[in-house]
Design a protein that fits this description.
Blueprint: H1 5-30, E1 33-38, E2 46-49, H2 50-53, E3 66-69, E4 77-79, E5 85-88, H3 94-98, E6 105-113, E7 116-126, E8 139-145, E9 153-156, E10 169-174, E11 180-186, E12 192-198, E13 209-218, E14 225-235, E15 243-244, E16 248-254, E17 262-265, E18 268-269, E19 280-283, E20 296-298, E21 304-307, E22 318-326, E23 332-342, E24 350-356, E25 360-361, E26 369-376, E27 386-390, E28 396-400, E29 405-410, E30 421-430, E31 437-447, E32 455-456, E33 460-466, E34 474-477, E35 480-481, E36 491-496, E37 506-508, E38 514-517, E39 528-537, E40 544-554, E41 562-565, E42 575-579, E43 588-591, E44 593-595, E45 606-611, E46 618-620, E47 626-629, E48 640-648, E49 656-665, H4 673-716, H5 724-728, H6 736-740, H7 755-758, H8 794-801
Parallel strand pairs: 1-7, 8-14, 16-23, 25-31, 33-40, 42-49
Antiparallel strand pairs: 2-5, 3-6, 4-5, 6-7, 9-12, 10-13, 11-12, 13-14, 15-18, 17-21, 19-22, 20-21, 22-23, 24-26, 26-29, 27-30, 28-29, 30-31, 32-35, 34-38, 36-39, 37-38, 39-40, 41-44, 43-47, 45-48, 46-47, 48-49
Length: about 800
């Protein structure tokens, strides 16, 4: 048998190729692909290339998938989506699929998703000789009388072969013996009768038992055989067999027939008398063993065949029963009963979602397929035809694609911002006289598309920031809204400017759009900024919008007056001016010239004497800074006069600067030169020695006090925490924001004091009307709202803390 396999496989290949050619031609004519293959093909064997046979371009497989759609055939076949080949997926046994039917087909649909199309594929399963003939039972017992005349025929049970055609049983062979031969007859209805013929008379006294071997041979290549043992028991006198009225009985029955319904009666007669003529009916054991499963029963005496269980057309449409009649002498005859089941509308349609595109983008146009519905009814004829409909009013409709497939497509544009999801019902109903139906509910989510840009409430806005602000202070919250969903609605903020490097001046919180000042602004350097705030969503592609911010800096009185003339270096000598002794009252001696970098009333300057010798010989113009003589000088008058001129602005609080002038009343420098040298050389030295003595005494006193306090604390062992409140209150807490405003190092805090305090009133020195600058405070961010520390009152506290040093 192994030597014949190559030739068989080669012949199988030619037969498959021929079947492919025949199926291709048939496809051109009928629009349906037909293939023919042998059963028991090896797994992953190539059957055909469906793409080529359909006349499609293999490149279409890259954009649309090709797959098998079948509940039954998917376990036997599969399609390679890359090359379009149809393969055997699992073992195919024709006898299991179709039994003894003359033809056996597996039908399924192949679906091409893009472009969408469905093709029917019909595959004929050809029989191969993979089953051997089998006798049921394997031992036959025949009882006959010894007076049986030669030529008597004994009916035998045929062997059964699950294969069909030439692969089924073709002939029988009987083992060599002197008494019996085998007779085979084929009736017009195709029924083959097998009989054992007595050729030589039997002698019960010589041999009462004959055992023969009956061999059944099929027509396959190689030939398969099956054997049975014939046991002939020689008895007396029963020489007539039961005879059925028909060799084959046929009957039709509804699938919903009640249990215990009699569907047919088989009848046999026997010419013998007495017990030899009494017939008992029973089912013969066959390969199907249908009667043993409990579906049918037979009355032993009457021959009535009844239904024991409900029949189902969808499970089995035809039954074949083997009935035997046995008389009292042990003679047996056989007949066949063929039962056809008639279909009734007892199955509701089956509806399933083959594919569902959920969620579906909201920008999907009309005609977009969102789902493929498969409907199937196991019934046949009108009972198996199904109609589908959608219940609710939705922007979707059903389109029939084939006899069992419906496409659900959109009929209008979708908008997730209006409707975010749909629930609708699909009803499937058959066309039976008493229609049955089934429904499914489909939930379809609408996928958001980034079709809405972020939107600001205003496209431009003006905000005002006082100069000398603290770096990192929030100044504005620019918030945009986006009606989209998820990532498409997440907004990121950024800023840019065409005029400056915006990152060195401002920053923005990417998440909430809060704008921060990166540095302290100076009105005198930059008065206005134009910044664009960009809100961009996280969609793909992203959408954005802009907000134009006009940021105006509000001036504060933060610049001290600067004395241009007379110029006095820091730590240098006082300025000397010569005043002629013969000067008339009102004569111009000199002029103090100063400027202020602020604007408005913060830059209005006034000039004052804050230190001068008595009596006063000079006056200063409050507005111009001109110093003039107030009276005539005499020879007895003091020649040297030291005056300190203060220049202050009109801000609140006011800021000031001073300059020291040494005015010498003389006609020539030689007159005052000797007098100037003594005080310069002597007074500082004397004062320095006095200061050193006082400092040494204080340091010694403090050292003694410290030693005494240390000894007392050791003796008393005080609680270490008792000094806590004292230590905590030794120095007043200084706001670090105030110190940050003097980071340039031009003023040392412990050695500065406010000149304005020394005067009677800074405000009384001016009679100008101060102008007010209106700033809309509603545009500025409240620190408490932005999540920062409370900074209320910073402006007044910082301005009042500004001080100047007097040289």
């Amino acid at each position: 048998m192994d030597q014949m396999k190559p030739k068989t496989f080669k012949g199988l290949i030619w037969q498959v190729l021929f079947s492919f050619l025949f199926c291709w031609l048939s496809h051109l004519v009928s629009g349906q692909i037909n293939y023919s293959i042998k059963e028991e093909m090896r797994k992953d064997s190539v059957i055909a290339n469906i793409v080529k046979d359909l006349g499609l371009d293999i490149k279409q497989l890259s954009s649309g998938g090709l797959r098998i759609v079948s509940q039954d055939s998917e376990k036997y076949f599969y399609v390679n989506g890359d090359n379009g080949n149809l393969y055997v997926k699992d073992r195919i046994d024709r006898e299991i699929l179709c039994g003894a039917s003359a033809t056996c087909f597996l039908t399924f649909d192949t679906m091409l998703e893009n472009p969408f199309n469905i093709f029917k594929v019909k595959i004929e399963i050809q029989d191969i000789n993979d089953n051997s003939p089998v006798f049921y039972p394997e031992t036959f017992t025949i009882e006959t009388i010894e007076l049986t005349s030669p030529g008597t025929r004994f009916a035998l049970q045929n062997a059964e072969d699950l294969d069909i055609g030439v692969n089924s049983v073709q002939t029988y062979r009987l083992s060599d013996n002197p008494h019996f031969t085998l007779s085979q007859k084929l009736s017009s209805d195709g029924f083959q009768s097998l009989e054992l013929v007595l050729e030589k008379s039997l002698d019960q006294e010589l041999q009462n038992l004959h055992e023969l071997t009956l061999t059944a041979l099929d027509g396959g290549n190689p030939v398969r055989t099956g054997t049975a043992i014939l046991r002939i028991i020689v008895t007396d006198v029963n020489d007539n067999f039961p005879i059925f009225s028909h060799k084959v009985y046929k009957v039709s029955v509804d699938e919903n027939s009640p249990v215990n319904t009699t569907i047919i009666n088989v009848n046999a007669t026997d010419k013998d008398a007495g017990t030899n003529g009494q017939i008992i009916y029973s089912f013969s054991k066959t390969s199907g063993d249908v009667h043993l499963s409990g579906l049918f029963s037979i009355e032993p005496k009457s021959g009535d065949i009844k239904i024991n269980k409900m029949l189902d057309y969808e499970e089995t449409r035809n039954y074949e029963l083997s009935v035997q009649a046995k008389d009292g002498g042990g003679l047996i005859s056989h007949c066949k009963v063929l039962i056809e089941v008639i279909d009734k509308n007892d199955n509701a349609p089956e509806i399933s979602i083959t594919s569902l595109s959920s969620p579906i983008p909201e920008d999907s146009g009309p005609g977009t397929m969102i789902a493929l519905i498969k409907v199937h009814d196991k019934d046949s004829g009108e009972n198996g035809q199904v109609d589908c409909n959608i219940f609710e009013e939705t922007p979707f409709s059903l389109v029939l694609s084939s006899d069992i497939y419906y496409r659900i497509v959109t009929t209008s544009n979708l908008d997730r911002e209006i409707v975010s999801s749909y629930n609708f019902t699909v009803l499937a109903q058959d066309r039976g006289s008493h229609p049955l139906s089934k429904r499914i509910i489909i939930r379809l989510e609408i996928l958001d598309v980034n079709d809405n840009p972020p939107v600001f409430m205003k496209t431009s806005h003006a905000i005002y920031i006082p100069e000398n602000n603290l770096p990192g202070t929030p100044i504005y919250r620019g918030q945009a809204s986006d009606p989209d969903y998820g990532e498409n609605a997440k907004i990121k903020y950024s800023i840019y400017s065409k005029e400056l490097l915006v990152s060195s001046y401002f920053s923005v919180n990417m998440e909430n759009g809060v704008l921060y000042a990166q540095r302290s602004f100076d009105y005198e350097q930059q008065k206005e900024f134009i910044v664009q705030v960009n809100a961009r969503d996280n969609g793909s592609p992203s959408l954005s919008s802009n907000l134009t911010l006009i940021i105006r800096i509000v001036d504060h009185n933060d610049n001290e007056p600067k004395i241009l003339y007379p110029y006095q270096e820091s730590g240098g000598l006082a300025v000397f001016e010569m005043v002629p002794l013969a000067s008339e009252p009102g004569s111009l001696i000199t002029k103090v010239v100063a400027v202020d970098a602020d604007i408005g009333h913060n830059a209005w300057l006034s000039y004052h004497f804050i230190q001068m010798s008595e009596p006063s010989y000079f006056t200063i113009n409050e507005h111009t800074g001109e110093i003039r003589t107030s009276r005539l000088f005499q020879e007895k008058d003091i020649l040297k006069h030291k005056v300190v001129v203060m220049v202050k602005d009109n801000g609140v609080p006011c800021l000031s600067a001073t300059v020291t002038l040494n005015l010498f009343i003389a006609d020539s420098f030689q007159q005052v030169s000797p007098k100037r040298s003594n005080p310069i050389n002597e007074d500082p030295q004397t004062n320095l020695q006095l200061y050193l003595v006082i400092a040494l005494a204080i340091i010694s006193f403090l050292f003694i006090i410290t030693v005494i306090l240390g000894i007392i604390s050791k003796c008393k062992q005080p609680n270490p925490t008792s000094l806590g409140p004292l230590n905590a209150n030794l120095y007043q807490t200084v706001d670090p924001r105030i110190l940050s405003m003097y980071s340039d190092g031009t003023l040392t805090l412990p050695y500065s004091y406010n000149v304005c305090v020394a005067l009677d009133s800074c405000e009384d020195d001016f009679t100008y009307v101060q102008s007010k600058q209106e700033v809309p405070v509603e545009n500025l961010i409240d620190a408490a709202d932005s999540g920062f520390g409370n900074e209320s009152g910073n402006g007044s506290s910082l301005n009042s803390a500004k001080q100047v040093s007097i040289q």
